[in-house]
Design a protein that fits this description.
The complex is a heterodimer of chains A (976) and B (143). Chain A has 976 residues and is mainly α. Chain A is built from 48 helices and two strands. Helices cover 64% and strands 1% of the residues of chain A. Chain B is built from five helices and seven strands. The chains are: A mainly alpha (976), B alpha+beta (143). Chains A and B meet through helix 4, helix 6, helix 8, helix 10 and helix 12 of A and strand 2, helix 1, strand 3, helix 2 and helix 4 of B. Chain B: Residues 3-142 form the AP complex mu/sigma subunit domain.
């Protein structure tokens, strides 16, 4: 480091201003080091300059270099960690300006991983002890922004001294710094906390503001420890006229009140007073927030808050409107009335131009949803969704979906309506909620058996619309629609139409996974149709239970006009289709609605006579359709598709045989194979009509291990036994449920029929046994409520509401719905299958766990001190006032005597008044010997004494533990 | 920690001042600033001044060509922060005399000192303009 370059540098150094001008000339976009090549050269040239200059021995040159580097770092994100040492060097400069630059660079660029940071300790200590208040202030600012645990530990004594500084602005900064030091080095709480508390009584607004800010942050983390300080905060709440301070105090109370209800009674009046009096919106809003969050038991206060919220909402200022809506959302769970009163604004806000306000309004609208108004609200929202931008549209759909499905669809009574709403949502142009709608369609289909006809109806409407296939966002919904149509095909009015929809050419737009579902559904439909054809009597029996009948009609309509006149809607949709009933059709006749059924039966049987021929043609037609469509897909590269297509084609082979057999004029000698084919169709149909119910997550665990079951741990010898068997099993590679595998085999060979039937019947018996044992997991097999037929079709609602979705209209529309009303429920809510556990969402109940919070431990220790001892000498309440006065007296001399460093905290005189008394030792002591009433024997902790007091600490910590335990029942006297 | 960061950004989205009260790496800062600027600058005068971003609440206000953006905790009082921004602008106004973007560009250090006087460790510690400017004026007299 020769003098030469240094001199050159100082003479011709570019100043910070030159640098900035240069940057402007080169038009360097901030934050982008890589601008034009020219500008990045300028930047790297400048950094090279800085690197050279910063090594200079000349303070001024170095300072300027560091200034430039800091500038580049903060605006152009240039790394300056390499200059850390130079910053430390400059901080020790005697020139204040250089020192300042050094500290600024440090506070901007240092972090806990800066290794040279410890070198700063000495300089900081020196400056903290400096006689120049500006140096002290500089050091404090730096400490507060770069503090590390080591720095905190080493500089706590200095900080403690500064907490008593006679210069207001130093004291204030020391207080703000203390917060950071507490976090990093909780032991410092034991040293500094009482001085912090003393300052609550300070008359200087700035100091009180700083200290309240610190307590606000501390209370945010763990409020309980600060309950004993409530009297001090209360005094500030009542006395202070500074809005900044009041806002912070209100925040503290918002945290404290929930812990101590009696505190609420005390503070509610002053808070309301502030709310009435203040002209400052910020303070008013803080009062409102405190009331709606923490003081909801106080009706008058809530009412006042609601009034003020209304004022906020009627302002033109979007800020106030936004905050008003937020406050309304907070108040909603406790006082829905407040929301209802403002519904007009809320609904209007849904079309606000500010997306934040719209979201807030949407949240609020969703909070209003109840059993009575869910339909109207959803209708309004869907109308909004149709005309809003994609983002908000999906937000609306998402919140409808999540609100309605909450807690097993608890708000939904009319599931027919809800299912058709799901279908409607799928058609909203921007809809991207396919996955959620898919889940809910399937979920409702499984859980709510009464709604299945409607689910199938909605599914059909979606499936037959070729336009929908082009929208990738709703492929998932179509998948669900296909699944429900296949699974509950017995509710389908027109299987032929359904089959056409499932096989329409545009399905090639679907992803393979969805296509596989389509084909599987087609398989189910075909099975059902074949079954219907082969076993008309049983199908008839099924029709008695209200299922097959619709199919009859479907078939009739399909084939002949003469029968279509007899269209009968579902007479007993709620009875559902139960495979178990098939085996004992006679019993059904004794149903609750005997007469009607019989008449239905006659009707159906009368037309089923004619139907015989039509069905055959139709079945052949269907088989041909399926075959011609699926045959080309048998060679698909997608395993899922290929697999399923093969299944279907196998079934077709079988059916075709049978049909031709029937076409031949009845020769009594039905050969064996044909009989079998019928059998297989029946077995398959039975398999498909087994209910798929929701399964509890823990269901598997509840199945007891059968006695005879031995699970071999080592399966290696198994390999030897069935070595050649394994290969086909592996190669079949089927992801399908076992039953499709089974069918695969059926189609391969007829001889195996006997065995093939077995597993399914076996599984049925297993299932029945399982059902017996775990009945709760199954859908109830007996019929529940009857549904009156005159209930209006759910779809009508959505049909009615026309384009007329003016805001005012909607407001009017919601008018009625938002008022909690008790209309007679037209239709009982269908059973929603719930599992007792497992699929319940686990709400993590945040138990008030005792967190090992070091700060609050220390705080409690300091505040509660030897309370265990003190509580034995309990004095009566009359002592209270005098106690308070005496405390004030002891306080004043302390403040005047700022440089007295030995301060002792005398612990609470009695349990009731857990007050903190401060006393100075030494020369002052004699003056106040009369005051040393109770806490005399307390430990005298001299924090600033240089010797380590480890022994003390361990004892104190032990005390602290006791106090934490003893603390909860104790309440500050002022609450009483 | 009430205030997490303070940004001053011009209309073009260039950062003119950035003060963080928690440690973020340079890359994190850049990403954060980019996201926030994109989000806030696109908003119109008729929209409200509060934006939620990640776990911050951003309170911002525009003065001529300069945006003042303050990132705060969810607990913080938004209106108080708006008042704080206004106070900051008034303080700068008093010092620079009708403050503009260039003043902040060329006197970044001073702007930082003013902020340091007003906010420490994320807490607002000083709200009196003359108290804030006192040390700076003293310094200017001395040099």
């Amino acid at each position: 480091m020769a003098g030469g370059p240094s001199l050159m540098d100082s003479l011709f150094q570019r100043s910070l201003e030159d640098l900035i001008k240069g940057l402007r000339i080169h038009n360097l976009a901030a934050g982008t080091a890589a601008g034009t090549p020219e500008s990045s050269t300028f930047l790297s040239k400048s950094i090279d300059e800085v690197r050279r200059e910063i090594k200079s021995t000349d303070q001024q040159t170095k300072t300027t270099a560091l200034q430039k580097l800091t500038y580049l770092h903060s605006l152009y994100a240039i790394d300056m960690s390499w200059a850390a040492f130079h910053a430390i060097e400059l901080s020790s400069s005697t020139i204040f300006n250089s020192k300042r630059t050094g500290y600024l660079a440090a506070s901007i660029s240092f972090n806990s991983s800066t290794d040279v940071i410890l070198l700063l300790t000495h300089q900081l200590r020196k400056d903290l002890n400096s006689g120049n208040p500006h140096e002290v202030s500089l050091a404090l600012q730096t400490l507060s922004s770069i503090c590390t645990p080591d720095l905190a530990r080493d500089l706590t004594p200095e900080l403690f001294t500064l907490l008593n500084s006679n210069k207001g602005f130093i004291k204030k900064k020391a207080i703000a710094t203390v917060l950071r030091v507490f976090e990093l080095y909780p032991d410092s709480v034991r040293v500094c906390f009482k001085r912090l508390v003393e300052n609550l009584e300070n008359a200087d607004v700035g100091i009180v503001s700083a200290i309240v800010g610190v307590f606000c942050e501390l209370a945010n983390k763990e409020p309980r420890s600060y309950l004993p300080l409530a009297p001090e905060f209360y005094r500030i709440l009542v006395d202070s006229r500074n809005n900044w301070v009041l806002i912070k105090v209100l925040k503290i109370f918002a945290k404290l009140v929930p812990l101590e209800p009696r505190l609420g009674k005390r503070v509610v009046e002053p808070i309301c007073e502030h709310l009435r009096r203040t002209g400052a919106k910020s303070l008013a809003f803080e009062c409102i927030r405190t009331i709606v969050c923490s003081l909801t038991q106080h009706e008058l206060a809530v009412k006042l808050a609601a009034e003020k919220i209304r004022e906020f909402l009627t302002e033109d200022d979007p800020n106030l409107k936004y905050l008003g809506l937020q406050a309304l959302a907070a108040i909603a769970p406790k006082s829905l009335n407040a929301v209802v009163e403002n519904k007009e604004v809320v609904i209007k806000s849904l079309s606000d131009e500010d997306v934040n306000i719209k979201f807030e309004a949407l949240r609020l609208v969703m909070a209003m949803v109840s059993e009575d108004n869910v339909a109207e609200i959803c209708r309004v929202l869907i109308n909004y969704a149709l005309k809003s931008d994609p983002e908000f549209c999906n937000e609306i759909l998402g919140s409808i979906l999540s609100t309605c499905s909450r807690n097993y669809y608890e708000t939904i009574v009319d599931f027919d309506w809800y299912v058709s709403l799901l279908g409607e949502m799928a058609r909203v142009p921007h809809c991207q909620k396919g996955e959620e709608i898919e889940n809910q369609l399937v979920d409702i289909g499984m859980r709510v058996r009464d709604v299945r006809p409607e689910v199938v109806h909605v599914g059909r409407d979606l499936l037959i619309d070729p336009a929908l296939l082009g929208n990738p966002f709703i492929h998932r919904i179509l998948s669900a629609a296909a699944w429900v149509s296949g699974e509950y095909v017995e509710f389908c009015k027109n299987p032929f139409e359904l089959m056409e929809a499932l096989l329409q050419p545009r399905t090639n737009l679907l992803p393979p996974s969805v296509r596989a579902v389509y084909i599987q559904s087609a398989f189910k439909v075909l099975t059902f149709a074949a079954y219907f054809y082969f076993y008309p009597e049983e199908a008839l029996a099924a029709s008695i239970s209200g299922v097959g009948e619709s199919v009859h009609n479907g078939w009739c309509e399909q084939s002949s006009d003469s029968v279509s006149g007899q269209t009968v809607t579902f007479s007993e949709p709620d009875e559902g289709f139960n495979p178990r009933m098939l085996h004992q059709p006679q019993k059904d006749a004794s149903g609750n609605d005997g007469k009607k059924m019989i008449s239905d039966l006659e009707q159906v049987s009368s037309c089923s006579v004619k139907m015989g021929h039509f069905t055959k043609d139709c079945l052949v037609g269907m088989v041909n359709l399926v075959e011609s469509t699926l045959r080309p897909m048998a060679g698909s590269h997608e395993v899922e598709i290929q697999d399923r297509v093969k299944n279907v084609l196998g079934l077709i082979e079988l059916i075709r045989q049978e049909i031709h057999g029937c076409l031949v004029p009845k020769e009594e000698e039905n050969d064996r194979g044909e009989l079998k084919a019928c059998e297989i169709v029946r077995v398959m149909h039975d398999a498909f009509s087994e209910e798929l119910g929701p399964v509890s997550l823990s269901a598997q665990g509840r199945v007891p291990l059968p006695d005879g079951l031995e699970l071999k741990e080592n399966l290696s010898d198994l390999e030897a036994i069935c070595g050649d068997f394994r290969i086909p099993v592996l190669s079949s590679f089927s992801l399908e449920k076992p039953r499709s595998l089974e069918k695969d085999v059926v189609t391969v060979s007829d001889q195996q029929n006997e065995e093939e039937c077995e597993p399914s019947s076996e599984s049925t018996s297993l299932l029945t046994e399982h059902r017996k044992r775990h009945g709760i997991y199954y859908l109830p097999s007996e019929k529940k409520e009857k549904v009156p037929n005159d209930y209006p079709p759910a779809n009508d609602l959505s049909m009615q509401d026309k384009v007329n979705d003016e805001v005012d209209y909607l407001v009017k529309l919601t008018e009625k719905s938002l008022v909690p009303k008790k209309k007679p429920i037209a239709k009982p809510r269908p059973v929603v299958v719930k599992l007792d556990d497992g699929d319940r969402i686990h709400i993590n109940e945040t138990l008030p766990e005792l967190k090992e919070d070091l700060i609050s431990d220390a705080v409690q220790e300091v505040l509660l001190g030897n309370q265990a001892v003190a509580s034995s000498s309990r004095t009566d309440k009359s002592d209270k006032s005098s106690n308070r006065r005496s405390r004030k007296e002891t306080f004043r001399p302390l403040e005047s005597n700022a440089d007295s460093t030995t301060v002792e905290i005398a612990e609470l005189g009695n349990k009731n008044s857990r007050r903190i008394k401060h006393r100075t030792h030494g020369k002052e002591r004699s003056h106040r010997s009369s005051k040393k009433a109770t806490g005399e024997s307390d430990r005298s902790d001299r924090p600033n004494s240089s010797h380590p007091h480890g022994k003390h600490k361990s004892r104190q910590r032990a005390d602290g533990m006791e106090n934490v335990a003893a603390e909860s029942p104790v309440i500050p006297d002022f609450l009483l | 920690m009430g205030i997490r960061f303070i940004l001053m950004v011009n209309k073009q989205g260039q950062t003119r001042l950035a003060q963080y009260y928690e440690y973020l790496t340079i890359e994190e800062r850049r990403a954060l600033e980019g996201e926030i600027v994109r989000k806030c600058l696109a908003r119109t005068e008729q929209q409200c001044s509060f934006v939620e971003h990640r776990n911050y609440k951003i309170v911002y206000r525009r003065y001529a060509s300069l945006f003042f953006l303050v990132g705060v905790d969810n607990e913080e009082n938004e209106l108080a922060i708006l008042e704080f921004i206004h106070l900051l602008v008034e303080t700068m106004d008093r010092h620079f005399g009708n403050v503009c973007e260039l003043d902040i560009m060329f006197h970044l250090e001073k702007a930082h000192f003013m902020l340091e006087e007003m906010v420490m460790n994320g807490c607002i510690v000083e709200t009196s303009k003359s108290n804030i400017l006192g040390p700076i004026q003293l310094l200017e007299k001395a040099s």
